[in-house]
Design goal:
Blueprint lengths: L1 H12 L17 H4 L1 H17 L3 H5 L7 E4 L3 H10 L5 E5 L9 E3 L28 E5 L6 E2 L2 E14 L2 E6 L3 E8 L10 H4 L3 H4 L12 E3 H12 L1 H22 L11 E9 L5 E7 L9 H18 L11 E2 L2 E6 L22 H18 L1 H9 L9 H32 L1
Helix pairs in contact: 3-9, 8-9, 10-13, 11-12, 12-13
Length: 425
Amino acid sequence: YELTRKEWIHDEFDHIHLQPHQRVNHFRNHYELTRKDLLVKNMKRAKRQLEKESRTDEAQSYNVYPTTYVLPMEYSMFVEEFKKHHNALWIMKPVGKSQGKGIFLFDKLSQINDWKTVPSFRQPEGQTQQTAEAYVVQKYVENPLLIGGKKFDLRLYALVTSYSPLTVYFYRSGFARFSHTHFSFDNENLTDIGMHLTNVAVQKQSEKYDEKSGGKWDVRRMKMYLMSKYGEDKVNQLTTAIENIIIKSLLSVQKSMINDKHCFELYGYDILIDSNLKPWLLEVNASPSLTANTKDDYDLKCGMLDDVLTIVDVEKYLTGNELQVGGFDLIYKGGPVSNHPQNAIFRSYLGSMNDRQQQLKKLAKLLAMRAQASPEAATTATTSSSAPGSSSGATSQRRVAARRAVREDSRDAASNAAQPAASKT
């Protein structure tokens, strides 16, 4: 069976053979994590498996997403759940769309008749069941944390370089996306998508949209605000819980993913925080938006992309054991990784000072010292990823420095071009 399975994979996927230095920025079946219905399916399956193994405490750690069903396939199960929660609000999301497209709210079953399934024996003779577009339906989180009376969620970034062993880097920075409308649960506001969805693509349609801030708030500022209001202990629990959500979601799909040494993936996580400071996983994006509408936004995303390319390490000048590279911290590699000082208050670097440039300078000095101390190793690393004739550690260092200089010059030029637009707003 295993041989047949491998042959099928080769027949279906291996039409193109990549060179050792080539990389692809997606895993082959990334949709196991990034499609809304498959994400929930895999999370539920991981939880059931832990319950079968009597690991109940660990199974409870997977309760990080709202009550969810897939329609029309699980319509009857959803109806039973719907009847248990009178006057509850539910939200419908298409499984394969992004930027808030196709999402709507409802509080009556009559509002989703298109997804109602009818048993085959009740079908009129000669008439077939019409299948509606696949949606997930989720119980609306009714107590979202509000700041200034407005709803928000977090966009955070995780980089996976391997699923065997699972290797995860978590970016220190990110941003909160705010609605530009004061939040209310009145029935008359059910159709006001801009009040309930914080996607930038949705908020740009609002007359109140603030182009200067982009409706975003840096995660570090958010963390400091929450610390001033709720204290360090509760914020520590929150950031640690968010980091655990990242790890649990990736563990739930680890066995399903087709691992490939040529592949890596940058995921965009959408996290909602409720008024009890409990984080909820909303969705995972395979291609998070990297367009920027403010200078701060631009600096964050370009710096992050620069760090992604450093970690991908096409030149093979890293050891692979670095605990921090730029703004990314290694949080999982075959098991949880911790590099916090013993007296640290926080157990997660999320929202900490992103000293990426200083850290990269230290890393470059360390690599230079390593190249001088072990020229044979530097030569091996260089010749494995460069053209014939490049055979010295110094050459490798020059290539690394040149690549970084080109990236930073490009970023500075684009940033200067973006400044006039920012000043106009």
